[in-house]
TrEMBL record:
GO annotation, cellular component aspect: bicellular tight junction; plasma membrane
Subcellular localization: Cell junction, Tight junction; Cell membrane
Function: Claudins function as major constituents of the tight junction complexes that regulate the permeability of epithelia.
Record key words, sorted: Cell junction, Cell membrane, Membrane, Signal, Tight junction, Transmembrane, Transmembrane helix
Transmembrane segments annotated in the record for this chain: 84-105, 117-141, 161-182
Annotated PROSITE patterns: CLAUDIN (PS01346)
Protein known as: Claudin
Membrane topology: Multi-pass membrane protein
Amino acid sequence: MASASLQFFAFILALFGVFGDIAATLLPNWKVNADVGSNIITAITQMQGLWMDCTWYSTGMFSCTLKYSILSLPVYIQTARTTMVLSCILSAFGICITTVGMKCTRLGGDAESKNNACFAGGICFILAGIFGLVPTCWYTREIISNFLDQTIPESSKHEPGGAVYTGFISAGFLLIAGVIFCSSCFKRQQGTWIYPAKQHHFPSTEQESNAGYSLKDYV
């Protein structure tokens, strides 16, 4: 019962991780730059994401521009796009597989098949967490290095936005969920290795006695 409740808790964490992963991929505020200027009426907030760049004015106007060209983008943005999409796909696969393999569901067949499905789902969550953690770390590193560079003007410097923090938290949720699923399956397999099934062994004396009777019949 404790293992089933632990798997359910990991499944809830994985759901939060999947939703946060998708939100972080689509949100445009990976980079944020607030340029107030001399007058607060002309304040501008510029946001850059993986797929679009948005500008928000203090007057309430909001405009976005999609990034159509892929080859013109920096390498870290191209990598972030690819890895975040892979993270979303793997986490979605993990949700489907662990739904079949969890102990609290009636899907997946016997206990061994559910155990294997649960382990495979945990591996998907771990890979999704890694794929989600790599672009957020790389993106944050680029933002900090540009911010500390003295040759770049202040108007071109940015700070990490909410999408980066959402990606960090979502990757952590997916990693924790994957570790819980894999460890619960590993403990069960380890129990079967430590306590193997009892096998019945027939004593050799009984066989020898039977062989002796068969030889006497031919004398």
